[in-house]
Amino acid sequence: MKKPSFFERSELSATLWLFRREFAVCVIFTVVVNLLMLTPTLYMVQVFDRVMLSRSEFTLAALTLVMLFFLSVMAFAEWARSRLLVRIGVKLDERLNSRVFNASFEEHLNQLGRNPSQAFSDLTNVRQFLTGQGLFAFMDAPWIPIYMFVLYMLHPLLGLLSVIFSLLLIGLAYLSHRLTHAPIDKALEAGMQVNAYVHSKLKNAEVIESMGMLDDLRRLWQARHQRHLGVTHAAQDLAGRAQALTKFLRYTQNSLTLGAGALLLIEGNLSSTGAMIAANMLMGRATAPIDLMVSTWKSTLAARQAFLRLEDLLTKHPQRDPGLVHDSPHGHLRIENLSATAPGRAQPILKGLSADFPAGEVIAIIGPSGSGKSTLARALVGIWPYVEGRVLIDGEPIESWNREELGPFLGYLPQDIELFEGTIAENIARFGVIDPEKVILAAGRAGVHDMVLRFPRGYDTSMGEAGNLLSGGQRQRIGLARAMYGDPALIVLDEPNSNLDDAGEAALVKAVQELKQQGKTVFLITHRMSIIGSADRILVLYDGVIQRYGPRQEVIDALQPKTAPQGNEGGGTAPTPATQPV
Q1: pLDDT for 465-510, tens place per residue?
Q2: What is the dihedral of CA 470, 471, 474, 475, to 10 degrees?
Q3: Model pTM score
Q4: Helix or strand or coil: residue 19?
Q5: What's the fold here for domain 11-316?
Q6: What 3-state class would DSSP assign to 113?
Q7: What's the pLDDT tens digit per position in 33-43?
């Protein structure tokens, strides 16, 4: 996907641009807040210059009321600004959450290796930055020269001090970032590696316990943990030094500003003690945005990286074309010069396959392990991203179909059964609107209805995360029922009997025969030859190439080893393979 040029807005930038009016209002509130920040300073100067000299209680009361009014306006402006930014963050999330969900799903579907939950964390980081102190620091930053100018008007020396301390704080922040950025990132990466290591091993706790592997794995974990502690300690030590130096500079600034004000007052260059104290307060206001930037610098960088990752994700996975509207598919499928590859693999998995699969037939796909059967199954349902050639359903390319429209007419049982946290009925119904009759019909076809009724809550039984409360055979049969739910015209079953007992396999054969009688197109990818008796056609796949394809009996006869009579008296036979081994 082509990235937008400099003058073009990306989808994420264009979404933020929609809130330009709201951001403009926030800027107006920021102007009000920073103007009224001068209220305490002016109040102090007036108290020292007027009230202390005139000793007028009325003047003090009037000044106090004016001061309270301006501070109330300032508080309201700060509250309104914060509330508006929170609403911007919520609306931004509402506009982007579905897009991020879909793009993250496609990223994971394309097997690009990223953590699918990272995109949602990135969206949260961007939203929190918009509603946090980091954005306020950038909004307040343009007022730094204004406060410096006010200090300069009091006396040029005070203005010079404000410039010097601002430059020192900025330089210290930059130096701190340069020194601590790499160690902190290294520490975070080491921590994630340790957590990932522990998580991956705990997933196989039964294997670890049964074969006494715990001590060796703990030794490997401790080595990683000690390395994590070492880099974390080094990063924290550097960060602590930078923080101590920043505090020293801040305290020095306060004291030297007060000392400079006293010196100017002694020499008669300041009008009063109030001006001296006011100069100290103005110095604090001039460098406050810098302090805020320094304290939020890490979160600001994290938000920037999150923004760039989100921008890249949405650019690589633009909003899906809704596709054309088609009539209900009949199940006629054809592949033309279909090739499939995988990242990091030099040789293609599938090599220019072409075949026609008539509607209403059962096609068995057989072949040795690693021949590309599962990749072909994924390509047939349009979920393998690295393909060339065409997969046609009823003469139309599968990518031209709206996936939401096509989904109910497709049934797919992957080799690795993936069920989802929820009830049995929800999983069979694909988490759509549950039709009890269709759920029971699909469960009956898969031979799982009686088993489900034996559960305490029947179809309302929760299966746990990824169906871990069920056995492998039970998960496979429920996955089979899900594939046959509704009225699918095309069903692809990848090793559907790998975890089934005799009764389950008999139910599978019966279900395939019923689907065949109803005119459904069924693909059976299998290593077990007992199920191919239901097939109309057999496709033999070897090393990514179609070795044989045709009517079942014709292919079986071709695969049978030819025999030749022997010259010995025993009449023995010597096998001569008709084809390469399958």
Answers
A1: 656 667 777 888 888 889 988 878 899 998 888 777 777 788 888 8
A2: 70
A3: 0.65
A4: coil
A5: ABC transporter transmembrane region fold (1.20.1560)
A6: coil
A7: 988 888 888 88
